[in-house]
Amino acid sequence: MENLIQFVFPLLLAVIMGSMGLSLTVENFKTLITEPKVVFVGLIAQIIFLPLTAYILLGIFDLPWEFSVGFMLLAACPGAATSNVATHLAKGDLAFSVLLTVLTSFITVFTIPYIVNFALTSVGGEATAFTLPVGKTMLRIFLLTILPLGVGMFVRAKREAFADRMENPVKIISVIFLMFLMVGVLIKEFALFKMAFQTIGPFAIVFNVVTMSMGFLLATIFAFSLKRKITLTIEVGFQNVSLGIVLATTFLNNMQFAIPSILYIFFAYVTSGIIIIYRQRH
Question: Radius of gyration over alpha carbons of the chain, in Å?
Fold first, then answer.
């Protein structure tokens, strides 16, 4: 099972990023030029406030070291294709959501190794001599995220009709496959997850609610439109769980680091689902 996880999760991550590239056009990047303040606030919320919030909350909650590292790892991986789907269903600004996801994917190639190395030595009351090699980690994240994203964009530029046909089926199939694989891991490690749920469940709920509230508050302070308030709320509430699992199981080779990512996503689905239901009804 461990070998399957280490092979399939990176492959699924690359496919999901490629499917996102299939949907990207120049129009998606227009906000970057016309409204840079909006984009800057969104990036600050995801790149800086997410890890900072996780670190502050971990100082309040007394979690085991492995789970503390796992949550910092998750906070270092903002943005995900699932956030784009949730934004669309919640009647948010889909173009803004996609733009933030793409930009954070580029930026976190450089930030993730430093945040994870900081977490390995600075959270949970325990330190380790093990660290991620920065250059090698950046290259591997680039190959798993930015390269397939670029391939998807290239395919769309050259074969737009083909990209239109393949975009949704590839994305839907890969996300469903990801969910089945996560459920499979949960079943296999049920005893561990049961213990982990009791230990980190409250933290996961608080972290999700606090980060989403923070996204909405920032959007309100900077006078975002309602659609963009919804978008930023969902964006900071949905982390790139597939990347977090890949980092934990493949880069760090520790399944316990992945447990916070797998448990957290279920809470994110609940809170975003509440927003979606409310928006659909109003």
Answer: 18
